[in-house]
Amino acid sequence: MRQKLLGIVEEHRHLAERMATPEVASDRNAYRDAARKHSSLSDIVERFAAFQRDEADLTSAEELLSETTDPEMRAMAQEETERLEPLLADHEEALKVL
Fold it and tell me: pLDDT of 53-95, one tens digit each?
């Protein structure tokens, strides 16, 4: 799934670049087609970016949890882990549907 999503992100970026070229910008039909496709991918790209951000935060919290002995820091890391795990599951489900 991750590879497919990375491909979608790349396609989204490519479409944005393409829409900025003079050839596409001056061709109404080509621009409209590219803009529609770009728009259709935007929700997926935004959700995947949120997934990646939350995944990195979860990894950091888990590392902190395993490395620290300070009770306050462990409690904070545990809370963050408990907050992020359901978010990641939500992102995964949403990405499957999108």
Answer: 999 999 999 999 999 999 999 999 999 999 999 999 999 999 9
Determine contact, residues 81/58, Cβ cutoff 8 Å: yes
Q: Both tokens of residue 69?
A: 């002995």
Residue 15, number of CB atoms within 10 A of its CB? 21
CB half-sphere exposure, 5, CA atoms < 13 A? 19
b or e along 58-83 (b: 16 or more beta carbons within 10 Å of the residue's beta carbon)? beebbebbeeeeeeeeeeebeebbee
Q: Would you list the DSSP string of 15-76?
A: HHHHHTSHHHHT-HHHHHHHHHHHHHHHHHHHHHHHHHHHHHHHHHHHHHHHH---HHHHHH
The model's pLDDT over 11-57, given as tens digits with 9 standing for 90+, comes to 999 999 999 999 999 999 999 999 999 999 999 999 999 999 999 99
